[in-house]
Amino acid sequence: MSFEERQKQFRAAIETGAGPDAKVAVNFGFSNSARLLEGGLFACTNNMETTSQKLVAGGDGAAAYVFVSVLTFPPYDEVYFAITVRHDRDTFNKALVDLFHDAVERSRARVAAGKKPGEINNNVKFYLNEDGRIGFSNDFFESISAEPSLRERSAAVDSIQFAIWPPTVSARRSLLAREFVGLLGRLVGREKVHELKVWTSETSVGPLMQRTPADLDPKAIRDGVAALGGVYPDALVDRFHAGLNHLAHKHFVILSGLSGTGKTQLALQYARTVHGLDSMESPDPLLFVCPVRPEWTDPSGLTGYEDRLSGQYVVPPFLEALLVATANPASPVFVVLDEMNLARVEYYFSDILSAVESRHELQLHSSGVPMMGSTGGEVPASLRVPANLFLIGTINVDETTSTLSDKVMDRAVVIDMSEVDLAGFFAGLGARESALMASIEACRPALEPLSALLGPHGLGFGYRLVEEFVRYHAFATGKLGRTSGEVIDDQLVQKALARLRGSEAQRDLLTALAAELAGRPRSLNLIQRLQRDLEELGAFQTSR
Fold first, then answer.
1. Is the CB of residue 160 less than 8 Å from the CB of residue 133?
2. Which helix (H) or strand (E) holds 336?
3. How far apart are CA 540 and CA 530, in angstroms?
4. pLDDT, position 399
5. Which alpha helices (H) appear in 64-208, and where do they start and end?
6. 469 and 484 in contact (C-beta within 8 Å)?
7. Helix crossing, 463-479 with 422-432: angle to 10°?
8. How far apart are CA 154 and CA 476, in angstroms?
9. Taking residues 302-324, what's their average pLDDT?
10. Beta bridge partners of 261
11. What would you report as the CA-atom Rg of the chain, rounded to the nearest whole angstrom?
């Protein structure tokens, strides 16, 4: 789509909403387009000759005045905006008449001084002042603050509508474009600045993606998570919702517990529910998953770094989320730090925690100007962690992970997700895939008692293991022709009991497992071996 076509589409959208009695002045040319000045904004230059003559002759003027302009930000962002004056149109008309008479008096003064009268300048310059009014003059000024006449001849602004091209949510978008929109809000009041959806794309932000999570009905969130396949006690979803939203400036929850209990899935389902998406397959441009690497010892894995060879700033998913959240302040942006304790959290996350708590800027690089990022947009030297960024961490507690320090846990809400609802999960899995019902009915009597025995010892299993157990059973019995009992016995050894370990404190557990598995030869043989290990070594572990 060409620049001219975008101009026509924005103008058409504004004219449709302005009404037939409004005067819409379009200013897309180089000489009359907007520019930033000290103390405000030069909005446009417009020829007001016809309007001025009608007003001087005693006409009523227009029902509203709308000034349409555009400001372009490198590398390719364009902010189209329209300033509307409606309720204060009488003041606007009077000031315009005064300006016309002032021009006439200037011409007469030139004649009195023996000079040629010169033409009356009808090219009126419009300026948006810091007090939220649009002032105008026949002259161009370098500073709005130093010109009191712009306040004397001014009118109150009713609203400003804007649209940004390209219509996408991305870190590629210039932050300057969104900062300009923020400037408009500071000048006239944020409540008067509204985005107009002239163009749409697959990754554009719709109204549902601009909802504040704290304002949503908790039942709607529970229902949305369930509709996306989540099986959790209602109290867990409510605690997660409260943990993310009880503070206005900080949203940080850590989900802990057994592997496979749905920690990451809960984060993804919650974010999609808040954004109004009804499928886990739907792309969500405001959701970022950041897998933590065990070798991280500094924040560069999250906040990026300067690549000396390319001269660009490498933008990892976390920094992309930070840039998107900064560029879209009305939309909640979710970041999932997956398995965040694979590395020492306080090593790689301390700068971010400090920026969140202190509300100071997060230092990214030392360049005096924004650097070009690897995603194509600009990366400023520093950024604040915005209030619309929601941080969700997941952790597993085992021998491969690091413990969380007190300073990390003090700054987050830590929710344990070790409790599982196998009955609810089996029911949901059967409802989604009826072809698995036979395997569910066969596996359920074997898995539920084991879960009840292992859970209190921290050795239970989650939904991932259960689903894979059932799918293995369906494949082996259906494709290989093996009996159900053989397959279940195999999978108990290969899957459900593969993480068994303990010491004297788990002696009674082994005894109970031996009784429960008496009819399954491979499983019973494994338990008996572990009992012998306990007698000889004082401890046992399945994998050794």
1. no
2. strand 333-338
3. 6
4. 66
5. 89-112, 149-152, 175-188
6. no
7. 50
8. 80
9. 90
10. none
11. 33
CB 353 within 8 A of CB 411: yes
The 3 state secondary structure assigned to 149-212 is HHHHCEEECCEEEEEEECCCCCCCCCHHHHHHHHHHHHHHCHHHEEECCCCCCCCCCCHHHHCC
Half-sphere exposure of 319 (CA within 13 A, CB side): 28
Instruction: Reply yes or no on whether the pLDDT at 447 is more than 90.
Output: yes
256 DSSP β-pair partners: 416
What pLDDT is attached to residue 400? 64
Instruction: Establish whether the linkage from the previous residue to 218 is cis, with ω within 30° of 0.
Output: no
DSSP-based helix, strand, coil % in the chain, nearest 5:
45, 20, 35
- Distance of alpha carbon 242 from alpha carbon 143, whole angstroms: 48
Lowest mean pLDDT among 125-134, 142-151, 235-244: 142-151
Cα–Cα dist 385/360, whole Å: 8
pTM for the model stands at 0.70
- The answer to whether residues 541 and 531 touch, using CB atoms and an 8 Å cutoff, is no
Name the H helices within 413-483.
Answer: 422-432, 437-454, 463-479
Q: Is 299's pLDDT higher than 70?
A: yes
Residue 416: which of 430, 395, 434 has the closest Cα? 395
Strands 64-73, 22-27: pairing kind:
parallel
Q: Could you identify the residue written with the tokens 């000889």?
A: 536
How far apart are alpha carbons 489 and 322 in whole angstroms?
A: 49
* Residue type for position 447: L
| Backbone dihedral angles phi then psi of residue 492, each to the nearest 5 degrees | -60, -40
Asked whether the beta carbons of 72 and 180 are under 8 A apart, the reply is no
H or E stretch including 34? none
Hey, is 374 helix, strand or coil? Answer: coil
Whole-number Å distance between alpha carbons of 266 and 411: 21
DSSP strand pairing (305-307 vs 287-291): unpaired
